[in-house]
Amino acid sequence: MNSLLHSVRQKLLPLLPQPKAKHPIISSYGQIESGLSLETIQPVAEWLFLSLFNAGYFGKAYLFWLRLQTDPALEK
Q1: How far apart (Å, rounded) are the C-alpha atoms in residues 58 and 40?
Q2: In the prediction, which pLDDT does 49 show?
Q3: Staple 34 to which of 29, 50, 65, 70, CB 3.0 to 4.6 Å?
């Protein structure tokens, strides 16, 4: 009986509304590889967090830091 209840619960759990986060969750990728200093990265991350918070968005957000590499062959 206990395993039956567990099975039913596992199937119904995804259908129930999930609790809402109290603040945005930001995953940041490529900080080290970008070559940018922490003094450059921190204000951008703070701006994104506050923008999401002020907009009432409390889900997940992703921040990708890319290293801009210029190819002289492409500039011709």
Answers
A1: 24
A2: 93
A3: 65
Residue 72 lies in a domain: no
Q: What is the mean pLDDT of the chain?
A: 84
Contact of 48 with 63, CB cutoff 8 Å: yes
pLDDT of 47 reads: 94
Closest by CA position to 65, among listed 42, 21, 16, 32: 32
Is 71 within the bounds of a domain?
A: no
The domain tally of the chain equals 1
Which residues face 28 on adjacent strands?
A: 63
Residue pointed to by tokens 């080290």: 32
Within a domain: 29 = yes
Residue 50 is assigned to a structural domain of this protein: yes
Question: Measured in Å, how far apart are the chain's first and last C-alpha atoms?
Answer: 73
